[in-house]
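User: Structure tokens for both sequences below?

Assistant:
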Amino acid sequence: MKSFTRKMATWVVGLACVAGSLAAQAEGRIRIAEQFGVVYLLLNVAEDQQLIEKHAKAEGIDAKVEWIKLSGGSAVNDALLSGNIDVAGAGVGPLLTIWDRTKGRQNVKGVASLGNFPYYLVSNKPSVKTIADFGEKDRIALPAVGVSVQSRILQMASAKLWGDKDYDRLDKLSVAVPHPDATAAILKGGTEISGHFGNPPFQDQELAGNPQAHVVLDSYQVLGGPASATVLYATEKYRNDNPKTYKAFVEALNEAAEFITAHPEQAADIYVKVSGDSRIDRQLLLKIIKSPQVQFKTTPQNTSRWPSSCTGSARSRTSRRR
């Protein structure tokens, strides 16, 4: 009996060591979802310069970083909730939606901003001067209908024009299309897509490449000035279980922001390299990065407009899904 007890004790100690080893291995793993555009340049620089690995090593851990490309806030939120990613990159709209859905459970919260960027709703249809000019046959391409930051801004503009009860009036004309595909449609013309609510550099490519392309709506005008529209967020559990990795990630983002501001030329080259978009005009890219309307920083700005204008619609949609 004593021999059996000793064996059991040995097994328990051994299992505890294995569990401890697995926990130690878990710290250092980070899977990050990003989407398309210059708005994700902080992540591009962090990947290229291996900044997360650098700051993790300073914390005494070897980081295993995975970069996952998705399109649309809905896909990003689904990946976060299913445990397929650890950090989500999307608009403030998707963050509000998932924050509301996970309160008291996964408790998804913001990690950092990716900076301030103006988002333009561009149309290649000369008769469309304002959002009121879109007709039943028009289609507005954006990352995710009713969830993406572009869709939320469009709802805010609609509520201002037609009243709160008609905030989603243009949802029926909106279609979920990845930015590269939507840009191709605006540049080519002749398709049902007559509008694209995008982000840099896609909106800039449209304005430069199609003489009929013009700005119908500017996010800065809707939000009352420069604002953080694209952000990073994660579950409370991930942050609590991986404090060193989380710290390394945030420090990497801050270093990336400083690098872009100090070295815009190198940052442009990194974007081309990491995104694989070798066809983009480099001077156009540099113009975006150096624009006074664009700020690369991790501190959120002017986000107070979002709750009063969007949270209500986010909650109503959430409750219907439940």
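Moving on to the next sequence.
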Amino acid sequence: MKKIGACQSNYIPWKGYFDMISQVDEFIFYDDVQYTKEDWRSRNKIKTDNGLLWLSVPVGKSEDRLICDVKITNNDWQRKHWQNILQFYKKAPFFHEYEKFFEDFYLNEIHGNLSDMNIDLIKRICTEILSIKTKFGDSREFNLQGRKENRLLDLLEKTDATHCLVGPAAKSYINEQHFADRNIKLEWMDYSGYPEYKQLFGEFEHAVSILDLIFNVGGDAPFYVYGWRNKCS
């Protein structure tokens, strides 16, 4: 059995993104597809004392490019994002435990490509904070053919997948029978049931960056991402 997951890279993704990574044998970053503006590729949300705040990486609005080709030409945003994170999470119970990790990312590194930046940080959070052992791959390695469903099927065949885990958004273009015809079991990612944890700033919100979880629960973060599933099974 070999379960594959594939998804575009996101900027400081929410916990569900990392949960999906934890559930597969190999996770493929799928960034040689069209960039979509005002999407999770270049932005995410954090909690503040005045509601949710978008942190957006300025990369322009052109959709005439692949995600992997999106350049970051101005790095002023890095300090601004870090200042916002510091302002609203410095009182979180475990902020100082992870402060250096994220401060280095924002203040001591220069990022010139959106995809490379996202992938690097996602991998580091997986291995250094969330204890996720999943193998990583890059769709650019496979010279994929076709579009949408056919392209995904090509990827699965080239990675010798027997199972594929996909997000609910893919239901708009996937025909499950086509996967069955190729002896690939299709599984749909379920983002329900995540346990709540003690957050700052009022009413609980699931759909925020993984930063919120890490700063608020520290070393227990793996449980809230994927460990709770074992407890429920």
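User: Anything stand out in the second?

Assistant: The mean pLDDT is 95.
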